Amino acid sequence: MSSRPAAAQSQFKNLRASSLYCPKCKNAMPVRERLLLVLPDKEIYDYLCTGCAGSVGQREVTSADKLMTAAATARRPAPRSSLLLP
Length: 86
Ligand SMILES: [Zn+2]
Prior knowledge:
- By secondary structure, the protein is of the alpha+beta class.
- It has helices at residues 6-10, 63-73, and strands spanning 19-22, 27-38, 42-49, 55-62.
- It has a domain at 17-70: N-terminal domain of TfIIb, CATH 2.20.25.
- The chain has a four-stranded antiparallel β-sheet with strand order 1-2-3-4.
- It starts with 5 loop residues before the first helix and ends in a 13-residue tail after the last helix.
- The chain binds zinc ion (ZN).
């Protein structure tokens, strides 16, 4: 009997390699996500180019988006035994 460290590996998959086109660098640059504004129902993130530190875009994340993102990223193979209907 041996235990597999599957839970420890899964957290590395949360790393997002995101890059956006930067008009100053004239290239698709890796960006840094910075929390710009927090509203009651959403958060606004600013994307900063890692090359010139300029803003290359913004993103609004609503509560619904967060749930969808969490559901999409936490895609695990479901155990077959749980597919039984009540
Ligand atoms: Zn840039």
